[in-house]
Amino acid sequence: MTSETPAAPARKLFLLDAFALIYRAHFAFSKNPRVNSKGLNTGAILGFTNTLVEVLQKEKPTHIGVAFDGPKKTFRHEQYAAYKAQRQAMPEDIGLAIPYIKQIIQAFHIPILLVEGYEADDVIGTLARRAEQQGFGEVYMMTPDKDYCQLVTDCVKIYRPAFMGNAAEILDVAHVLQRFEVERAEQVIDILGLQGDASDNIPGIPGIGEKTAKKLIQEYGSVENLIANVDQLKGKQQQNVREFAEQGLMSKELATIHLDVPIEFEADKLVLDQPDHEELRRLFDELEFRQLAARVLDGGSPAGVTGNVSPRAKNEKRKTNAGQGSLFGTPADAAVAIGAEEGETGSLGAPAGLRRTLEDVAHQYHLLDTPALRAELLKFLLLQTEVSFDTETTGLDTMTARLVGLSFCWLPGEAYYVPVPQADDAAAQALVDEFRPFFDAEHILKIGQNIKYDLTILKHYGVEIRGPLFDTMLAHYLLEPDMRHGMDVLAETYLHYTPVPITALIGPRGKNQKTMADLPPAQVSDYACEDADVTLQLKYVFEPLLKEVGLLDLLNEVENPLVPVLAAIEYEGVQIDSAAMGEYSAELQGYITELETQIYQEAGEEFNIGSPKQLGEVLFDKMDLGGKKIKKTKTGQYATGEEILSQLAADAPIAGLILEYRQLSKLRSTYVEALPQLVCELDGRVHTSFNQAVTATGRLSSTNPNLQNIPIRTEKGREIRKAFVPRDANHLLLAADYSQVELRIMADFSGDQTMIEAFRLGQDIHTSTASKVFRVPLNEVDSEMRRKAKTVNFGIIYGISAFGLAQRIGISRKEATDIIDTYFEEFSSVKQFMDDSINKARELEYAETLLGRRRYLRDINSRNATLRGYTERNAINAPIQGTAADIIKKAMINIHEWLRDEKLATRMILQVHDELVFDAPQEEVAYITPKIKELMATALLLPHGVPLEVEVGTGKNWLQAH
DNA sequence: CGATTCACG
DNA sequence: ACGTACGTGAATCGA
């Protein structure tokens, strides 16, 4: 009975401004466009639909309608030709999105409102006013557009949908009056009329901006009254208002939302209905909105948010929660604070320049500093299947850093920090031991950003993490290999969130640098929790992206499993014979001093030989060497590189001396002097860092020190390898090299039968190439021919040019051209392969390896010939170099696991692109040698079956092992 | 901090 | 007509 009286059910009407919401959603995704597998940009559709779903779920309206701008020009255009004139044409992506959006709205059984000749705001304004008159107590105009402020009344309010970290916002009369500093909402029109609106091309009055408009309207109440009292104004302002009075009035008129649109308000038609589930599912399938479908249609919570918690875990959590009302297990829907899962509130809207931070995002970060709380946390951790964690330490050097605390996160927006109770290593050890069940748990996926660091820290406390890993840094490396992968920029780009910079805690680099240990745990907690939280959310963003482009397997089967292998290699370190280095340093210094004297003598003066500038002046100005062959660098200095000096050396002895001086100085400063300084005090070994996310091709790189460029090509350089030794007299170094991997890969990819045959027969490939290129029988190939052929072979892999080849083997360009032509005649499939590689890259704008690793080549279609040429060479080289990297990475994983499973004492200690070095007990050498060979040769099988060969050597030092 | 040079694959 | 082989990292000089 009561339900039939109009006042009883609380009627709640939502009117959505479609275009305003669509535009906002579209531009929110413009930085990381979302594209489905058919190439449709779905950002606007997803954003809009998310907003719609959110309002349905959270606000539960009883009535709803979506307004679009009507067709044909509006009265505003007739009134003012420039209206919205400079606004750009609708982006094509939005045009394509609109039919889908309309279908989705229809599938929700929500009426679409549009009136010819009127814009959506007029329609919404008119309907809102009439709804109010018909007794609706709550009417919400859903829009991000501030023009609507003029319409706000006690019943009619603006609903600004949730916007990144900012929750949905309701603007009522009080808000509007405060924001525009006016007495009545209608005066918003006067403000807008005076200050104009650049985006709608409403001119306003020149010289009047936001501040002045507010002041003038406070004083005069309206544009009309201001004009009537223009005498009271002063100077330039008076002149402007006088001169542009008409423009001001017109602007006010343009800004006015018209409430007389010819449209009936029929409440019945706006009643919220059940959606057409089948139709929605069809649309979501086509658009590939998997998570949205799960959330809307399957009644599930967002998969990414709670999907990682097993049902049992959830029940457990709830029970415990109810029982003690504790910290753990906030209901998932309250935890969507900064989630960016498929257009979660977080990623919905983030116009450039608007960024969320810790301060304006809802989150629950907890500091757990009692044994009881830690025990409770551990209990919950063990119920999860995916947890992100982070270690806080006293520094970045893994060998010396000490643990300060651990943070964990398994629900977005909710994280826990456990500090080491006292600043001593025993306390840290005890804490790690307490959480050992978590690190040992095979069933938990451990997520981290640069997780190798955390693994290494934990190794120092005796923990070998088990179970699968997911590194967000590596995930992004696969998505965008040539970008940076730091957590802060990833959070900015993918979550529209700005993490607290570490410098805010420990200050800028330099002396007096604090560490995490110097700060109260409460302060570290937020930072640490944020890291774990952001990392978890990045994982949720990256995983579907990787899946879309087919890179998830590469991540899960190569990059992530390689992490513990690299951690082990780095942790193990390499034994360096510092004494031998010391002796050699002195020896080199002797040569260097001698060379210096001779050089000064030749030059007739003393100067800094290490300064290319001074050297150039001495050689080319004072000594007048070089003749016309003088080259300059791009900065206008004389070029004094190896190539130049070698040419000079024929008739100027000083050039040869300088080359030798340079070589020896390099050896001494970069290796002989530097390496012993990097020996770790704790174990007397050198620990390099292998970077897994720097190269564009998929190779590793090595820093601090770089152990991938230890000399070998010259006699004096090679000597340095004698100082790389096994751990003790009972061990040997074992070096295993792939022989000509890259050439084999190219032979296989091209399917060139001539070259494949040579490899199958186990021929020396350079001799074989020489025989073809110089058209002589194999046994007549001399060493000079072989040398040239070797250069050609390398050149091919790099994307050869006649000029480059001529330069390198010291022949004329004509001769080089002939050699290349003959090469392509003999190996015609190789030529085909090179052309195909370029064409494929032109099409895709990326090149890919055997395992699908991508290198984007966005300049491949450039009109700049130089740039294009460079990119074309990359199109040839990247798949080859990258596949070689894929292969050795797989081999490393397999060997590491085999050594571990066999409980062998042999340790992998280095990787140098096509070589692995092991420190092996002498008695294991015979057993491991064939197995290592086999595991390397079969790590990946090439499509055409070209075999991989591995050469193994052992010795008392790295030089002997070759 | 960029440019130059040179060590490696 | 133009510039010229792929991928790295470290030391050094000098603005």
Key terms for this structure?
962 residues, alpha/beta, Rossmann fold, DNA polymerase, domain 1, Nucleotidyltransferase, domain 5, 6 domains, 6-stranded mixed sheet, 40 helices, 25 strands, disordered N terminus, DNA-binding, DNA-dir_DNA_pol_A_CS, DNA polymerase I
Short account of what is shown:
The protein is α/β, with parallel strands linked by helices and 962 residues long. The chain contains 40 helices and 25 strands.
Q: Between the first and last Cα atoms, what is the distance in angstroms?
A: 96 Å
Q: Largest beta sheet, briefly?
A: 6 strands, mixed
Radius of gyration of CA atoms, rounded to a whole number: 35 Å
Overall number of structural domains: 6
- The counted number of beta strands is 25
Look up the CATH topology of the largest domain.
Rossmann fold
CATH evolutionary superfamily of the largest domain: 5'-nuclease
The structure class reads alpha/beta
Question: Strand-residue fraction?
Answer: 5-15%
**Helical amount among residues, as a percent range?**
40-55%
Rounded average pLDDT: 88
Low confidence ranges = 1-7, 300-326, 329-354
The CATH class label of the largest domain is: Alpha Beta
Give the strand order of the largest sheet, numbering strands 1, 2, ... along the chain: 3-2-1-4-5-6
- Bulk shape: globular
Given the structure, what is the number of helices? 40
Do you know the CATH architecture of the largest domain?
Answer: 3-Layer(aba) Sandwich
Quaternary assembly? single chain
